[in-house]
Amino acid sequence: MIRxxxxxxxxxxxxxxxLALYTDVFPESEASVRDAPVYxxxxxxxxxxxxxxxxxxxxxxxxxxxxxxxxxxxDAAALDAAFARxxxxxxxxxxxxxxxxxxxxxxxxxxxxxxxxLNLP
Length: 121
Description:
Layout: E1 7-11, H1 15-25, E2 30-35, E3 39-45, E4 48-54, E5 68-72, H2 76-87, E6 91-97, E7 104-109, E8 115-120
Parallel strand pairs: 1-4, 5-8
Antiparallel strand pairs: 2-3, 3-4, 6-7, 7-8
């Protein structure tokens, strides 16, 4: 029987910095850190569990935008603020706009390469 499913984000030395950004952007989230022998953190955002890990190995890959965290917001100001912070040093794939399927939507990869879809249903 499955006990738990979490999104897994692997970094190479930037997991703590990423977690600091994410907990700042989403202050209602919770985090706990396990720092031995490699940095690992559990982060909970709106009931969703995310693991952040620093891999001690260098890999031939990074994040792919096909894996993303999809976040529904309750108001436009909160979405706009998150978009502004997450897009700093990142890549905007779809700027904030009405795309028909959503009154306000944006898709951005943050400076760590993690992909975020931000939505106002």
